[in-house]
Structure formats: C-alpha cells, structure tokens
C-alpha cells in the first residue's frame, strides 16, 4: 500500500495476483471485505471498492448471504488481461526503443533469447 | 459496499436503562470509599481523640457538680464541624472534577446538575441519619460515659431536642455546605480566576457592609435576640434560603460553563 | 447515505481570536473521517462545538438532525475521547470502566475486557499515578467499547508506543467492520492513519481547507524533481503547492497529473514521485500560512 495508485486498485491487484497464483482457486470463497481491511490495515470501504472493482469485471461474484466467490474462468481471463497489459506496457515500449536505437527485429529476438538463457 | 446502516437513533433511548440523572447519581457514588468510607473514618478518628480528652478531664475532675459543669462547657464542642467542611469539599469536587469528566461521557449540564443535586440530598440524608443515631446514643450513654458532647452540641439542639429536630438540623446544614461549595466551584467553572476574584470581593464587601450596618445601628443585641428566639432549628431553617439560591445559581452558572482544557 | 453531522457557517470566537471561522461541512453516516491540521488550527474547538461542550458564536450545527447543545437524546449517541480528558483525582481506571456503561447505551463489556488486556491497563492504580500512555489507553478503551454511533477521537494516543497505537488501529478497524459507525479521528500522525480514513477534513487557521475523499486526495499531488530550468518550464502554468531548490536542482509539488502529462515529464527527463497525505497536508497548510501572513 505505498505506491501512488489508489489503494482500492492495489487491493484489487493483490486479489488478482492470488487468483493467478492459485492461492484463490475458482469457485472458492474470498476473504470478506473486513478481513482484507484488517489484514492490510485499511478502511473497509476502500477494501470494498477494490472487491467491487473485480465484481464489475466478473472476476468475483456474490453469493447472497454467504460472500464473494471466484468466478469460473476468472483465472484465464485475468491471465489474458495481464498479457495484454504486458504487451502494452513492456513489449511496445521495448520495440519502440529498439527502433530508435536501430536494433533489428532479429537482433531484438536474439537479445531476448540471451536473457532467457541466463 | 455491503455494510448495512443501523437505525441507531431511535433504539438508543430504549437501551439505556434508567435516566441519565440516575446515572450521574451512581457516578457520584462509584468511588464509594471517598463519599461513604473516608468521612466516617475521619469522624471516627476525631471521636476517639475527643473520647480520650473527655476521659482525661473526667478522671481529673471527681466532684459530680464540677463534672456537670464540664459537660455544660462541652456543649460548645465543634468537634463534628469537620464533617460539614468535608462535605463542602465534596460539593466543590463534584463540580471541579466530576463535571468535566461527566461531560466527557456526553452528559448534559442539566442532567449533571440534577443528578448531583440528588446526590447531595441522598448524602445529606445518610449522614444526618447516622449523626442523629450517634446523638441518640450520646444522650442514652450520658455522653459516652464521660459527659462528652459531640453530636448533641448546643447548635445541634443540645440534649433535649427530639430526634426529628436533630435530623432536620443536620440535614439542612449538610445541604447548605454541599450546595454552597458546589455553587462557588461553579463560579470558577464559568468564569475561572476572574470569577473567583470578583466573587470574593463582592462577598467581602457584602459582609463588611452587613457588619457595618449592624454596628452603626447598634443592632447587635437584636441580632443576638434573633438567634435566641429562632433557636437552632429556626436558624438552620433560614439557611435553606441561601441553599436554594446556591442550587439555582449553580445550575444557571453550569448551563453556560465549558470545562477548559 | 445520510448526514450525521451538518455544519453551516459555524464560527467560534474567543475574545479577539477566531478559533473556528465560518465553517460548513457535512459528515456522512458510517464513515471514518480524518480531521487533520496543525496544533491550534481549531480541531479541538470544532469537536467541542459538535459535542455540545462549547457554544457557537454564530452558525448552525445539526447532529443526528438536531442541535447537540444540552440535547440528551443526541448526546448519548456521541462519544468524545480527548487527549486532555480530566478524571476525578481519587478515581482508578476501574471506576471509569464501571461507570461508562451507565452512559453509553451501546457499550460492549466483553470488548472492553479484551481491550483492557490488550493495553495491559492496571485497573486498580490511582489515575494520578498512571503513565501518560496508560492514561491515553483508558480513553481509547472507552471510545472503542462505547460503540457510539458518532465517535470522536481527539489525539487519543499521546504517550502510547507504536505497538499500542497499532493495537488501537487494528481494533478500530475490526470493530468498525462488524459495527459500522461514524468515527472522526483527529491526529497529527497522519501517515499512520492515512489508510484508515475514508474522508479527510483539513482545518487550518479555523477554516476547512480540504474536504475530500481520501482516495482522491492521495493521488491529488505529485512531486516533480529535476534540473531547475526543466522543472520550472514544466510547472510554469500549474498550481504549485510547494517549491524546494538545491543548487541547480528543483523539487516542486504540483496537483494531479494525467497520463499524457506524466509522459511529457518523463520525456523532459523529470522524475515523478507520489506525495503522501501527510506531506500534502503540510504543503497545503504552509501555503495558507503564508497567505495568512501576507493578508495580516
């Protein structure tokens, strides 16, 4: 809870990480808003906003009177979303910068392969 | 958010058992030792010291006539006067310390004053009953066996007064000290040091004026006569007037007072 | 959402000093508010007015829809814990905790017991002999266990160590989650409480200068660091909250920056860093301090 983005966005991201990492499998119940708030020492309303963000995206759904659950297919959708983000936030600037420096596509692929080999 | 809003406002009055006036009464009694224990202990100590003195006098005077003389003299004893001063201090502390505390408990000034006035009445009744009982024992044992006079001193109606007269004397005297103490403390709560300075000045001037008027008009014999005619019960009955004025003044002062930090 | 507190054009004068100056705001139900500001800014006076302990010079206060002054039905829904709370000299903590339930209709005795254990409050020691922290813990316990629908904490933890303060935050959040209520927390330890708050009121020189959602406020400023010329060029037509210059370097705090502006700053070789709530408030109150001095 320390970067400049709003806390509820960070909370949503933490839950997403747990879903992607498998700590929160699909169709399992996620901790309550109050649990999140107590654990991260944040206002429950803020935690609730984070949870609601994921409900709006269909990642979590509400079972009335029980609580929040991870939706079916949530993990694959999150992975797809993160891949898009990866493409936008890392690959695109990478390619742009490479173009500026006159690095060819083959050279770039070679450089990436070298990194992967290490 | 899924948090439900609780309809709090209407439910609260039902949940609070009894009124806040009674709660203030209980608050004044929460430290029982200070209001019910310590005063009796101190009174008991004074009594024991007096008992020792009476014993010494009694032992050194053997002639029955002389002993009656001594007992006659002891009727001016002020030994039990201390208990009234203590209660004036209780009155002061109720305003100086319990008032700011009670306001911290979200008590209204009105409820605080009514609850505290009730406390004064209850304490006066309790202590008057106790002292009336002690006076009866003092009469019955002929001054605890030594002709001592502590609870049947002259201004408490002497040895001849009926129990209800004694009770009334004690009761009214206690009320006077409680409420006057509380009212003076209320002046401080309302106007702080400035209020005390003005009050002391006004009181001094008033007393000087009264003494001056009586002296200049040669009325001291008349004043003495007034005391003699009214007797202890009459004089104490008149004290209810300043007591009532203090009670009202205390309320009016506290109603606009803010405990300062 | 309904308003628990509504204040309009509230002013409080002490002789020549204006402690609260024509202030208007509302407090919504079941939210945690931060009432922040420097010492002497008017925080305590404002809370004294809202709880009927002091009298307004001008303006209108509604608490649960009514004037709180001498209003028992309203006041019994209110708990006001202040750093300067006086206790009768001969009291022990047990006397305080025994009598508190008589005044707070929502008092939870079990919760109070737990808090006494948490804070290791000695019940049988004279209050005069308690340490500053132990004295503060009495207030914190009463404030939490009273569960009043409107609870004020005015600098509740003077003398409490970091561990005890953390216990206070944890218990407050837990209990607030289970029993939502309106909490107004006044403190100068802004960084410690900033994540607990949902809404922030900043008071300075008796005026409310910030009345904003905490999340919005957190992202509402950015510090731009770089060479003096580059920074000056970047911030030229922006509202500047604070400037610092060291040699050829500058560090300037400005308002919220959009995505495009962030890219522009990056292209200009400037570094951007988030501004904490505490820094932001220090900056904001500094600005009005200067303005105040200029106008005086």
UniProtKB/TrEMBL annotation, chain B:
Keywords for this protein: Membrane, Transmembrane, Transmembrane helix
Segments passing through the bilayer: 33-57, 81-105, 112-137, 167-188, 195-215, 235-254
Protein name per UniProt: ABC transporter permease
UniProtKB/TrEMBL annotation, chain C:
Domain called ABC transporter: residue spans: 5-230
Recorded superkingdom: Bacteria
Entries under Pfam families matching the protein: ABC_tran
The entry's keywords: ATP-binding, Nucleotide-binding
Single GO molecular function: ATP binding
Gene3D superfamilies linked: P-loop containing nucleotide triphosphate hydrolases (3.40.50.300)
Matching SMART domains: AAA
Nucleotide-binding as UniProt keyword: yes
PANTHER family registered for this protein in UniProt: ABC TRANSPORTER, ATP-BINDING PROTEIN, SKFA PEPTIDE EXPORT ATP-BINDING PROTEIN SKFE
Protein name as catalogued: ABC transporter ATP-binding protein
